[in-house]
Amino acid sequence: MTTIDKGHYCLEELANHVGGVVQGDSGITISSVATLSGAQSHQISFLTNPKYKSQLKSTNAGAVIVHENVKESVIGAALIVDNPHVAFARIAQLFDTTPVVATGIADTAKVASSARIGSNVVLGHNVIIEDNVVLGDGVSIGANTVVGKGAHIGEGSTLYPNVTVYHGVVIGKRVTIHSQTVIGSSGFGYANDKGVWLPIPQLGGVRIGDDSQIGANTSIDRGALDDTVIGVNVIIDNQVQIGHNCVIGDHSCICGATGIAGSCNIGRHVIIAGGVGINGHISICDNVQVTGYTMVVQDITQPGVYSSGQPAQTNREWRKNAVRLQKIGSLFDRVKALEKQV
Questions:
Q1: Catalytic residue check, 125
Q2: For the chain, what is the radius of gyration of the CA atoms?
Q3: DSSP code of 107?
Q4: Percent of the chain clearing pLDDT 90 (strictly above)
Q5: For helices 84-94 and 11-18, angle between their N-to-C axes, nearest 10 degrees
Q6: CA angle, residues 301, 325, 336, in degrees to nearest 5
Q7: In this structure, what DSSP letter does residue 5 have?
Q8: Residue 35 CB partners (closer than 8 Å, separation 6+)
Q9: Rounded to two decimals, what is the model's pTM?
Q10: DSSP state of 51
Q11: pLDDT digits 0-9 by tens, 262-272
Q12: Of the residues 85, 244, 269, 281, which is catalytic?
């Protein structure tokens, strides 16, 4: 792609970048992205949710990314693509203004003499790199992050400030880990000796595949014996708990506030919505979607959508239904008695 100016692209260049077709003025200059309702003439927006289709008539966006089937509804210029959300993501990356986590190697960073550091590595203030750590080329690590003994971090990965990577953890290439996340802390393993809890040393590690993204304040426990494994291109939201010895398949998605107990095996292309609880030693096959606040207590062996959470209702309705629920047992007994009479 040829750039008009740093951070500025004409619509035709953006079309070439995402494999789209321009409708209208292809020479419009775009310098950032925005929502339909908030966009200005120098910005580009997109439509994927039909709920916002009416905004196509009122938006001030210089151009809008849309699918073929709604192009007639666009008043001004449009970028026609097969998948507007994906095209928007690729264009938004061009205009990303997120600052780098650090520049150079801060004089307050502490790097063990036995560590192996690749080229163009960036270490913020008070970063600690312990013995026998391996950092690949282009790794960026923000302030106050600790990388424990023997950990490996692949090239192009970014760790934001205040991340903790325990000993022996292996992180792949181009992985992003956000602040306050802990990788490789001890799994929740204990034995009960006549009422006294005895900790079981967690001797496994954690392995994270290439191109994965892990949000803030997430914890991924190390394995008890074998490793906890996060696959390739897995995206994990904020405040997620993943227990020891879990295996998360490639290209899966785990949304915020989800808790996954130990030894779960989750397949590829699985989407787990927010607030889901998954019992220990559960297997979930490929191509499953679990809706928000579902409790998974048994294996899922067939692809599809699974739910157990209840939608919100008025308090009056909820109280009435709660009373009715308490009466289900007696109602069942009455129906059985009537069946015997018949």
A1: no
A2: 26
A3: T
A4: 93
A5: 120
A6: 85
A7: B
A8: 45
A9: 0.91
A10: G
A11: 999 999 999 99
A12: 244
